[in-house]
């Protein structure tokens, strides 16, 4: 042992009889065992030397690989410190403070470990005593509360928690958090994932009978008498609220009376507008049924018609209810169904029928407006609009029960589409422009420039993204617009000069529909990188918070592949949408951009300063850099630069500039506000 670094310290420790001091070889087998170890752990040296320490760990710790993890931490960091329950030879438990030090030979070879263990059971029991002092208080609350130690084991639980999980106090005590959660295939939970003051998370717990309980979780931390943290976790049962939310989401896209798709969902039923047809069916003189038999009888007719259409429409067709007595039928492929005449005949036959309602035979038929994708050349929403307009024309004319959307009709309702057409031309003819707003470090060095879309419209003047994007969304042009912005931004960035810092400036691009991770996006970026020579590391793609909720597995894999090449991802406008910490953790982001709404009043708002601090702490824990947006005053900047923020963006440093002006700004050097 004399040749080992740290060996002298190990020998000194070995003389401390009040502590369990022992050494292990490189495999973890016991080499030496002092009197303190015999006293604290209840085992003689002759019974332990040459064996493993597994007998002194709890079954849960062994199953979790805890003994091996402590040795691994010591190897990686030199020393590891642990605190938790241990088991004596006689089976009794004690609370242990354990320090493990790796011992290395001069040639770098691991020779073993020195370990010092202290019995802190008395201090731990003092904590438990203090916890019992407020038991009467928290037992009264109807909300489930649990106390967990730093390793995730239940120290205590109130009656509401025991009722929630249908478990006894004895059953819960000592249980690890992982045994209470419905893991659902996710990684095991660690207590250090909890953060006081963070947004409430939703967890799924499992009752003793196997039933799932959805809970909103709130966390507070406190310290034990020895200075170690413990967690007070409040579990608010939101199972019923969640069911209601799911029901609301369902009915947001379904008609409450018939259960069919509703007006909001119908355009989404048109998968391929060029091949599809939309038929808008308005039951003739439906009011006569309501007037003669009452509204309840009218509802019965609508429900019966819905069931008839569901049962008898050909496979693959869809049907929805758009309004009171109006149904919409979507045929996905006109040619495959025998052509226009065949589909119109099918729908007209189904809409022309009779129902027995409250002792009366009620005859119904419908006016039909049809829009064919092969002739109208529009999106699914366009086809629904044009089919509706055709049905109105049929009703007004009174001459025919069927009308088709044609050029004249479309022209009459397409004045509102004029701007969409102009935007399409602007994209195709490269008439749009990009301005770039710098993101700077605290010393004024320009790190990244965000691409911001502009359109110098000949009649409307300079249009911003707030005007352009809704037009593109209605027209189904978001993906094309994304592709144009990506292409233009990367080409311009490739020509930017290198600033005085010597580091090339990166370019960031917001995307709305052409999502990273999908093949079409990856193919475009690969082509642009090859054409421009721009380094992958200089490309930053920004996604708003809501876009990262429930990312498909394919998309996550593709994004990780792009990240491995050097591309960076940023969460834009962080704090304005909804995303659980789990989603943020799964998203391969390197940058979190704090929204300007938290900056506007930060010089005077303690809440805003606290929220920004929470975000920066979270970003650091995720190994992300933080950028704060909307910095417009020196007062804001003075407050923000006292926080661990990596970069700033806003008018205090520079407005968004055209490419040539940006190049001059980069060459001029740091931006000092």
3D structure, described in words:
- A hairpin with a 5-residue loop joins strand 3 and strand 4 (93-104).
- The longest helix is centred in the middle third of the chain and has 18 residues, at 295-312.
- The chain is an alpha+beta fold and 673 residues long.
- The two termini are 61 Å apart.
- Strands 18-19-21-22-23-24-25-26 form an eight-stranded mixed beta barrel. A five-stranded antiparallel β-sheet has the order 2-1-5-4-3, with helices on both faces. Strands 7-6-10-9-8 form a five-stranded antiparallel β-sheet.
- Mean pLDDT is 85; it is low at 1-14.
- The chain has four domains: 3-120, 2-Layer Sandwich (Beta-Lactamase); 141-241, PAS domain (Beta-Lactamase, 2-Layer Sandwich), CATH 3.30.450.20; 271-405, Reverse transcriptase/Diguanylate cyclase domain (Alpha-Beta Plaits); 419-668, TIM Barrel, CATH 3.20.20.450.
- It contains 26 helices and 27 strands.
- It is 37% helix and 25% strand.
- Helix 18 packs across helix 19 (465-474).
Task: Tally the helices.
Answer: 26
CATH superfamily of the largest domain: EAL domain
* CATH-defined architecture of the largest domain: Alpha-Beta Barrel
Structural class call reads alpha+beta
Nearest-integer average pLDDT: 85
Q: Please state roughly what percent of the residues sit in beta strands, choosing from under 5%, 5-15%, 15-25%, 25-35%, 35-45% or over 45%.
A: 25-35%
CATH level 3 topology of the largest domain: TIM Barrel
By CATH reckoning, the class of the largest domain would read Alpha Beta
Trace the largest sheet across and list its strands.
Answer: 18-19-21-22-23-24-25-26
Shape: globular
């Amino acid at each position: 042992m004399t040749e080992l670094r740290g060996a002298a310290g190990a020998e000194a420790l070995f003389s401390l009889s009040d502590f369990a001091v022992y050494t292990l070889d490189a495999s973890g087998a016991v080499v030496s065992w002092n009197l303190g170890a015999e006293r604290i752990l209840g085992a003689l040296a002759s019974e332990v030397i040459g064996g493993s320490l597994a007998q002194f760990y709890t079954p849960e710790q062994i199953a979790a690989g805890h003994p091996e993890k402590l040795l691994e931490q010591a190897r990686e960091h030199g020393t590891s410190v642990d605190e938790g329950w241990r088991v004596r030879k006689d089976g009794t438990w004690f609370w242990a403070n354990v320090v493990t030090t790796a011992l290395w030979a001069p040639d770098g070879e691991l020779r073993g470990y020195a370990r010092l263990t202290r019995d802190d059971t008395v201090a731990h029991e003092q904590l438990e005593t203090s916890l019992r002092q407020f038991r009467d208080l928290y037992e009264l609350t109807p909300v489930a509360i649990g106390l967990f130690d730093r390793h995730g084991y239940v120290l205590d639980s109130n009656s509401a928690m025991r009722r929630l999980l249908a478990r006894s106090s004895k059953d819960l005590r000592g249980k690890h958090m992982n045994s209470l959660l419905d893991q659902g295939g996710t990684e095991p939970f660690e207590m250090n994932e909890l953060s006081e003051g963070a947004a409430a998370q939703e967890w799924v717990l499992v009752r003793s009978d196997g039933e799932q309980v959805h809970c909103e979780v709130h966390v507070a931390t406190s310290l034990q008498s020895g200075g170690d943290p413990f967690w007070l976790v409040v579990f608010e049962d939101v199972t019923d609220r969640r069911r209601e939310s799911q029901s609301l989401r369902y009915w947001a896209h379904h008609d409450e009376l018939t259960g069919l798709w509703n007006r909001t969902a119908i355009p989404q039923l048109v998968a391929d507008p060029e091949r599809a047809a939309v038929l808008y069916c308005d039951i003739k003189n439906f009011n006569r049924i309501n007037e003669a038999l009452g509204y309840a009888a009218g509802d019965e007719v609508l429900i019966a018609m819905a069931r008839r259409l569901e049962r008898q429409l050909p496979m693959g067709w869809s049907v929805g209810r758009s309004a009171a007595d109006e149904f919409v039928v979507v045929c996905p492929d006109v040619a495959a169904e025998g052509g226009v005449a065949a589909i119109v005949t099918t729908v007209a036959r189904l809409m022309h029928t009779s129902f027995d309602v409250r002792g009366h035979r009620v005859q119904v038929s419908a006016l039909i407006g049809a829009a064919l994708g092969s002739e109208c050349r529009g999106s699914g929403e366009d086809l629904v609009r044009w089919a509706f307009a055709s049905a109105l024309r049929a009703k007004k004319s009174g001459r025919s029960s069927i009308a088709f959307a044609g050029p004249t009709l479309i022209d009459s309702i397409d004045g509102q589409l004029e701007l969409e057409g102009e935007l399409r031309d602007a994209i195709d003819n490269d008439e749009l422009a990009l301005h770039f707003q710098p993101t700077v470090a605290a010393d004024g060095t320009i790190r990244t420039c965000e691409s911001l879309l502009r359109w110098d419209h000949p009649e409307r003047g300079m249009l911003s993204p707030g005007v352009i994007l809704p037009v593109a969304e209605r027209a189904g042009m978001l993906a094309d617009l994304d592709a144009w912005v990506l292409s233009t931004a990367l080409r311009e960035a490739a020509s930017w000069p290198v600033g005085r810092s010597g580091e090339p400036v990166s370019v960031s691009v917001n995307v709305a529909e052409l999502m990273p991770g999908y093949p079409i996006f990856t193919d475009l970026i690969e082509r642009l990188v090859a054409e421009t020579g721009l380094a992958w590391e200089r490309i930053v793609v920004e996604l708003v918070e809501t876009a990262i909720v429930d990312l498909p597995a394919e998309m996550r894999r593709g994004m990780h592949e792009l990240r491995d090449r050097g591309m960076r991802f940023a969460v834009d406008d962080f704090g304005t949408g909804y995303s659980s910490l789990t989603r943020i953790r799964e998203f391969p982001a390197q940058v979190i951009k704090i929204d300007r709404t938290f900056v506007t009043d930060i010089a005077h708002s303690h809440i805003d300063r606290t929220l920004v601090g929470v975000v920066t702490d979270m970003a650091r824990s995720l190994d992300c850099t933080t950028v704060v947006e909307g910095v417009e005053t020196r007062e804001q900047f003075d407050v923000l630069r006292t926080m661990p923020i990596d970069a700033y963006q806003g008018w205090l440093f520079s407005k968004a500039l055209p490419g040539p002006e940006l190049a001059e700004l980069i060459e001029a050097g740091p931006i000092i506000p």
